[in-house]
Amino acid sequence: MDDDDDDIPQLSSHTLAALQEFYLEQQQREGMKTSQGFNQYSIGSVEEDWQLSQFWYSDETASCLANEVVVAAGKGGRIACVSAPSVYQKLKEQDGKDFSVCILEYDRRFSVYGEEFIFYDYNHPLNLPENLLPHSFDIVIADPPYLSEECLKKTAETIKYLTKGKILLCTAGN
Fold first, then answer.
1. Who's near 3: CB < 8 A, 6+ residues apart?
2. What is the pTM for the complete model shown?
3. 20-47 residues labelled b (16+ CB within 10 A) or e (exposed)
4. What are the beta bridge partners of residue 80?
5. Bridge partners of 31?
6. Interhelix angle for 85-93 vs 59-73, to 10°?
7. What are phi and psi of 94, to 5 degrees?
8. Could you tell me the maximum CA-CA distance found in the chain, to the nearest angstrom?
9. What is the pLDDT, as a whole number, of residue 174?
10. Which of 33, 34, 76, 168 is the most buried (most CB within 10 A)?
């Protein structure tokens, strides 16, 4: 019987190179975040978390959606972003003085945005702060995190509670 550790798993050279490249890119992103001129609202300032089913929109798509909700909200309008953090970030980049916006999101990393962050778990669609009154948003943009009927129904319950009537729902179909 051989006591050598021949059974210790090892990465192939290609896999190891890919992993090192990933770590290097991650370090570069972190370096950009800490450099001067970093905008905390830029898409990618908070990394996607695939475990939470997070996939950010491209900059172009987020801009388009943000522009649509600003127009729909109207001057002085209130916008709620439900599970749509990249749209929220793009709205904040606009430094809008003609609208207000909040983000309802499960991922607590977005609490860095202060009072505009509202913890949201679609499993408890109406477990919202008391200051979020029914029908208090001119438009609600939502991108449910999962493509299940249950998730969509529960997110719809939240949307119905929040909106005065305008909805922009972004999701994919099967």
1. none
2. 0.70
3. eeeeeeeeeeeeeeeeeeeeebbbebbe
4. 102, 140
5. none
6. 70
7. -70, -15
8. 79
9. 45
10. 168
91 forms bridges with which residues in the sheet?
none
- Whole-number Å distance between alpha carbons of 57 and 91: 13
Q: Is residue 53 within 8 Å of residue 146, measured between CB atoms? A: yes
pLDDT tens, N- to C-terminus, the chain (174 residues) = 555 556 777 778 877 677 677 666 656 555 554 454 445 444 454 554 445 445 667 888 889 999 999 999 999 999 999 999 889 989 988 877 799 999 999 988 888 889 999 999 999 999 999 999 999 999 999 999 888 899 999 999 999 999 999 999 997 654
Residue with tokens 């190179």: 17
Sequence-distant (≥ 6) Cβ neighbours of residue 157 within 8 angstroms:
125, 126
Torsion angle, CA of 8/14/17/18, rounded to 10 degrees?
-100
| Closest residue by Cα to residue 87 from 102, 109, 106, 98 | 102
Q: Residue for token digits 């202060």? A: 114
